[in-house]
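Justification of computing resources. Each target in the renewal requires a structure prediction run like the one illustrated here; the chain below, 215 residues long, is used simply to show the kind of job we budget for.
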Amino acid sequence: MADPSLYTFPSPLLGWEGGEPLSKYVRGLEFDRRSTTAAKYKPSTKVPSKQTPTGPNAKSFINPTPTKKSSAYTSFASPITNGTRAGFDAHIYFHQQIPSETTFATELWERIRREFPELRIYKVWDRPIGPHPLAMFEVNIHTPEQFGAFVPWLVIHRGPLSVLVHPNTGDDVRDHTQRATWMGESIPLVVGFLREHVRKQGTQAEGAEEVGVAV
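Resulting structure tokens:
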């Protein structure tokens, strides 16, 4: 994981300023304005009668009435690519010295090809390659719909294997570190390889299938 101090982070509210104040009410409860946190609540007598203090929505905040869905449902947020490079890569690792993990990884690779044939999937490497210190294989995810289906599926079906899910924004080092998401145990990548790879290219790496290195 990269040191956050290496980067700047614009406010999440950039472009959303000036909206109507959000409701301070929750379903079945009223926010106690005497508290500076959301920790203290008291029974509400002002919540609309349609709201109920029981059920799965109890105690959740009442949000504004939606006018349209977020564009994130249909395209990846900038600067994640929505092109042929694929918005996200999933690297699925296994210890090549452990036969049971090798077998599981090979079977998982086959299952993904059969159940998710629309995804782009590469060979099973039986050794470390590029910045990846263990054997692994890579799956490319092209749309939010694919991401929403495949990633939760992988949470359940990855078994004993670790998985790195990272975006492709054109900044390979940051994508593999500060913007990375891990399932299972995180594995230290050879970040120096990524930095050297980018330096040699004179620009950000374009992708594994184009430069011949799994990134």
